[in-house]
Write a structure and sequence with these properties.
Protein name: Isoprenyl transferase
Number of helices: 10
Radius of gyration: 19 Å
Cofactor: Mg(2+)
Order of helices and strands: HEHHEHHEHEHHHEEH
Structural class: alpha/beta
CATH architecture of one domain: 3-Layer(aba) Sandwich
Largest sheet: 6 strands, parallel
Function: Catalyzes the condensation of isopentenyl diphosphate (IPP) with allylic pyrophosphates generating different type of terpenoids.
EC number: 2.5.1.-
Keywords: Magnesium, Metal-binding, Transferase
Distance between the termini: 52 Å
Low-confidence stretches: none
């Protein structure tokens, strides 16, 4: 009986939040730091905390459905930084990457998927199998007749992304015959932005981080300069639709100043 009462109360609250968002200004691009998988697993009583990565990877599919329902067409999911891949226990990293291959790359690349997948990060630091799976997913969804885009930030470092963007821009301009002085005089922020992983997409309007941590961890340092930030104590696999709707309600209630 208590389960039924909780389910009814949850449904009522979710409908109330949806009603509050009717006609509200919603983000075009939501970026998510999917944090707290291992802590969620320990809290849930699993003997092996690494199982949290499976639940976390599977949960991304569900959150993408919420975004699609609300017309949010761009999502960037922070899966793992370069430091995560290089400094954590090798068994844990192997498990995480296996989940990416099995759950994210394969499931989101199925024919019925509406999302175009864009890997974002240093694919060279990934094992061949993970790199291959992401490339296949990218190619399989490249021609989807859809406006929905998912950036998978894996092997990602925000400072390195900016450095690589500038390096790529300089190489491009050099091939076109421009001198360093020419480039320095004409360089613009928009030029650099065209060489970022998210080139051609709007900057994130809202960045959500789960697990209670209040920091960006190098995530989208350039793109998130004017983003609204939302931190929640909920661990990523336990991030419910009402938690997502609350984040959107908070975003809709803010007056964006864009640096002012």
């Amino acid at each position: 009986m208590w389960t039924t009462v909780k389910s009814t109360a949850y449904s009522f609250y979710a409908r109330r939040l949806n009603a509050q968002l009717a006609g509200a200004s919603l983000p075009r691009h939501v970026a998510i730091v999917m944090d707290g998988n291992r802590r969620w697993a320990r809290q849930a009583g699993f003997a092996d905390a690494k199982i949290g990565h499976r639940y976390g990877a599977e949960h991304l599919d569900e959150v993408l459905q919420w975004c699609a329902e609300l017309g949010i067409q761009h999502v960037t999911a922070f899966v793992a930084s370069v430091d995560n891949l290089q400094k954590r226990d090798s068994d844990e990293v192997d498990n995480l990457l296996h989940m990416i291959e099995e759950v994210v790359a394969e499931r989101l690349a199925r024919p019925s998927s509406i999302w175009q997948i864009h890997p974002a990060g240093r694919l060279d630091v990934l094992p061949d199998s993970t790199r291959h799976a992401l490339k296949l997913a990218e190619e399989a969804t490249r021609h989807n007749d859809t406006a929905f885009h998912l950036n998978i930030a894996i092997g990602y470092d925000g400072r390195e992304e900016i450095l690589n963007a500038i390096r790529s821009l300089l190489e491009e301009q050099g091939r076109a015959g421009h001198t360093i002085d020419d480039i320095a005089q004409q360089l613009t922020a928009d030029q650099i932005a065209t060489h970022l992983y998210t080139s051609g997409q709007p900057d994130p309007d809202l960045v959500i981080r789960t697990s209670g941590e209040r920091r960006m961890s190098g995530f989208l340092l350039w793109q998130a300069a004017y983003s609204e930030l939302h931190f929640t104590d909920v661990y990523w696999p336990g991030f419910r639709k009402i938690d997502f709707l609350r984040a959107l309600r908070s975003y809709a209630a803010r007056h964006r100043r864009f640096g002012a």
